[in-house]
Structure formats: structure tokens, C-alpha cells
Amino acid sequence: MANYHSNVQDYYSKELKSTYDLKTSACCTKGSTPHSIKSILKDIHPDVQAKYYGCGLVFPPKLENCKVLDLGCGSGRDVYILSRLVGPQGFVVGVDMTKEQIDVARQHIDYHMKKFNYKESNVKFIEGKIENLTALGINENFFDVVVSNCVINLTPDKKAVINEVWKVLKPGGEFYFSDVYADQTISEDLRNNKILWGECLSGAIKWEDLVLYATEAGFTTPRLVTAQQIDITNDDLKKLVGTPVYFSKILFFTIFFSHFSGNIRFVSATFRLFKIPLNEAEINIPYLLTYESGIPDFEDAFLFDNTITFKRGELVSCGPTLASAVLNSRYRDNFTFEPIDNTKQYDGQIVIVEEQKERPVFLKYATCQMLMFKARRLASSLMEYRT
């Protein structure tokens, strides 16, 4: 592919006219949508919604009065939802390099300002590439939250994007984003396929690369929030990436093992990363955290990631990395913190949580689910073969 950027611009301005033109579920949001988001979606202009190509929900809690940046905002659907969530005192900036998408977003600024009963708009759209945010006039250490919805896979320089996000986030800020990940490195031939790249598949990165780029930039280790397997419905694309195949009664052993040795598995996943202030990065003692004051929509329990849920009033023992992330974030006021004192006796049961391992939970889950599915099919085929 001679130019990734121009091919993406062509694909999203000429090839795709609406969400229904997509050939995979990579750029489609699955799962349940919170009631608070559903109510806002009713107020989003139909033309904006028609050109939505995200793969997740990038609306972390407690956004009121926050300054938020949306990378690859497209026609602005998420920006306008965020506009409502941050309120009239907050501010949202959307960046996208595709002029046709930005034009749609800008055309509906007044519409949403009036729909939300704001005296003035609290959104701004910038046309440009997300690999160099500061060159677009975006200030460093400015945003409370940065979000992105199935966009980083479309850029050829993912490391540069993550470095730029770190620059523009305030200390203690959160990077909350959904994207597509693969269980292996994508070949150059597939990377050069315009449709596979535009459908958010051949630009997918490995989990290990995300961890490397994030930690090198200065972020905490990425924490997985949600994940789901991607379905490829287009037959031509299936042949290229090698989607699961059904068993033959005679050759099922060969097919079973060849699938797991070569074919690519894709997952869309939502992660959260935190920019910890440099003077706080050396916290090296465990803490007791108690979720005391409920966050709107999470009054009784706060889903922090796919393994950790803070229940209100529950004592939670956690390591220094997690403690530092929460302690320096906008969630701080909803928790009480106490360094663990081994000489002190605490009242009530203490829940102990572990740091996420280097191996991604979502890939373990996806692999496990696939293996279970294959095992069931294998057992069924064996029984049919024997009869």
C-alpha cells in the first residue's frame, strides 16, 4: 500500500456511504448500551449516526466538566454524546483526517447545541492526522480524558499516536479506547489490502505491542475492560484471513490443527490507561481502597476492568500500580485510600485483587472459547464418524 492515509480517506469517504456498507463486525458496536447513552442517542442527528464506524463504547464514567479529546472522530457521533456527558462547562475536541467526515460533523454543531439546550457549543472539530496532535495546535497536558473508537488500527504509526496521547493528557488523565487486536503479526500482503485495512483488520496490532508502546510512552499497563470476537461475514475476506472452517468427517484432525497454527483471530477490545505523574510513579507499597461515594450509573459497583469491580463499601487490597492509577485519577474523590499496615487489624473482609498479567485476559478468553467450540465440534464429528 503506497499511502495508508490516502487509502483510508478514500475508503471512508467514497467506499463507505453508511454503516450498512461494512463487510465485517470490526467497526460495529455490539453488546448492551447503557440507558444513559441510549437516551442521548435519540438526540443525535440521523446523518451523523448513519456514518458511525466504531467498535465499542468509549464513554468512561464521571465525565462532567471534563475536557475530552476524540481521536478519529469521523462524523462526530461520539463527540456529540460526549458533549452531553461533559455538560455545558465541559469541552470536547474531535480530530479526523477525512474531510468528508469532518464536514458532516461540523454541519451539525448548531443542531446539537440546540438539542442539548446549551447557550453555546462545547465542541470543536479539527481536520488532521492523529499521529501529530501537537502540530494541530492541541496543547500538551490539557485533556482530562482521551478516547478513540476503532481508529488506531487505521494508522501506520501506532506508537506515535500513543506517544501523542500521553503528551496531551493531564497528569492523572485517562486514555479510554476501543480497537481491534490480532493474535499474531499481520503479513505485509494483508496489510497492503485496501479493504482489509479499511475494515480495521489488517492494521490490527498484537497485545504485546500495545503494552510495549503504552509503557514506553509512560502509561500504566493497559487494563482490559471489555472484549468480543469479530465476525467476518464477507466470503472473500474470510479466505484472506483464514476464518474457522468446519470439520470434514475424514480430515477433521488436519483441519483442526491447521486452523490453530496459522489462521488469524481478531478481537475488538476496550482498554483504559492512565498517565501517572512522574513523582507518583514510584509508589511501591500496596493500598487498601474503599469505593465510598458512588459514581453516576455506578452507584453500587464500579467496573474498573474485566477482573476488578469495586463494590461500594468493600475493602480492596491492591498493588501499587493500580493504587497509583486510581489515586491520581478523577476517580480519586470516590475512594478512600490507606497504605496497608501489616501490624493493624482491619474490620470486615478484605478483597485481594491482582495486577493483570502480561498475557492478555481477552486473548486467553477468546482462545479458550474457540478451543471449547472446536472440542465440542470434534467430539460431535467423532461420534458421527463412529456411527
Automatic annotation (TrEMBL):
<feature type="domain" description="Methyltransferase">
    <location>
        <begin position="64"/>
        <end position="217"/>
    </location>
</feature>
<protein>
    <recommendedName>
        <fullName>Arsenite methyltransferase</fullName>
        <ecNumber>2.1.1.137</ecNumber>
    </recommendedName>
</protein>
<comment type="similarity">
    <text>Belongs to the methyltransferase superfamily. Arsenite methyltransferase family.</text>
</comment>
<dbReference type="GO" id="GO:0030791">
    <property type="term" value="F:arsenite methyltransferase activity"/>
</dbReference>
<dbReference type="InterPro" id="IPR029063">
    <property type="entry name" value="SAM-dependent_MTases_sf"/>
</dbReference>
<dbReference type="InterPro" id="IPR026669">
    <property type="entry name" value="Arsenite_MeTrfase-like"/>
</dbReference>
<dbReference type="Pfam" id="PF13847">
    <property type="entry name" value="Methyltransf_31"/>
</dbReference>
<dbReference type="InterPro" id="IPR025714">
    <property type="entry name" value="Methyltranfer_dom"/>
</dbReference>
<keyword id="KW-0808">Transferase</keyword>
<keyword id="KW-0949">S-adenosyl-L-methionine</keyword>
